[in-house]
Design goal:
By secondary structure, the protein is mostly helical. It contains 11 helices and no strands. Helix 1 crosses helix 4 and helix 1 packs across helix 5. The longest helix is centred in the middle third of the chain and has 26 residues. The two termini are about 30 Å apart.
């Protein structure tokens, strides 16, 4: 009875997390259109890459304490399933999918929503859960921190990348605007890092010199956010038939929210 109650509770949390964290994208017209029009190979690659990301994230903040990788795989598959169900139901209620649409369109619209929804399902454990996992107070490795920053960059960048405003901003910017935005991104990211801090072996203290934290976290984290941003733009077809200068500018624009998400990942993870 207790086991069944726990399963229902975890499922409820996962459904709630998937819905809350993916709501902005579920109600964005550009995401509906991308689900219909984007290249199917890029969409398939996104889903393939999503699975190992969820497995690693499960190892960090899954639904329950796991002792073997197969349990993390089960956690990840469960989150994917929750993401698919949540996305399908929400899109159907919103009228974004329904009778008369092709199988190609329906599956595409659901598939593109699975990434944020499944991440949200896993995040629900840390945001909506109350119990702590074994070893959560143990030291985090530097690469674990970098992974969490990449997830934060992916999650927030995914929210912004589909919008036309992001492309419009990049077209309006001059090279000086781009340089200023890079500096602002680094400043905001560094401020987040010092405000949030990092636990365990990479903990930041008031005695930590600004240049040390900048070199260890801010600069690598920003480069990571830029790479994630470029991948998202490529996945959504934003780099197709576009000059190298415009691709760089668009990456810098998307890198602003992505870098903030990377630095603030400790708040949500």
């Amino acid at each position: 009875m207790r086991a069944r109650s726990k399963v229902l509770r975890d499922t409820g949390r996962a459904l709630g997390g998937a819905l809350i964290f993916s709501m902005p994208m579920l109600m964005t017209m550009e995401m509906w259109w991308l689900g219909f029009s984007m290249d199917r190979l890029r969409l398939a690659l996104l889903l393939i890459l999503c699975l190992p990301l969820l497995i690693l994230l499960s190892r960090r903040i899954g639904f329950e304490t796991t002792r073997a990788w197969r349990e993390d795989v089960a956690d990840a598959l469960f989150a994917l399933g929750i993401g698919m169900v949540t996305s399908a139901v929400a899109l159907a209620v919103f009228g974004a999918i329904g009778p008369g649409m092709s199988f190609h369109e329906i599956t595409g619209k659901i598939a593109i929503q699975v990434v944020p929804a499944s991440i949200g399902a896993l995040l629900a454990r840390s945001q909506l859960g109350s119990e702590r996992r074994e070893g959560e107070d143990q030291q985090e490795s530097y690469w674990s921190e970098m992974f969490l920053m990449a997830v934060g960059a992916l999650f927030l960048g995914f929210n912004v990348a589909p919008t036309e405003e992001m492309i419009l901003i990049s077209y309006r910017m001059t090279p000086w605007h781009a340089v200023a935005l890079v500096l602002l991104s680094l400043l905001v990211m560094h401020g987040f890092i010092f405000a949030v801090g990092f636990r365990g072996g990479t903990e930041l203290t008031p005695q930590t010199p600004w240049w040390s934290a900048f070199a260890r976290f801010t600069l690598p984290g920003y480069m990571l956010a830029m790479m994630v941003s470029l991948y998202i733009l490529w996945t959504f077809g934003r780099t197709d038939d576009t000059s190298l200068e415009q691709v760089i500018t668009a990456t810098i624009v998307l890198g602003f929210p992505s870098s903030a998400g990377a630095a603030a990942a400790r708040l949500i993870l």
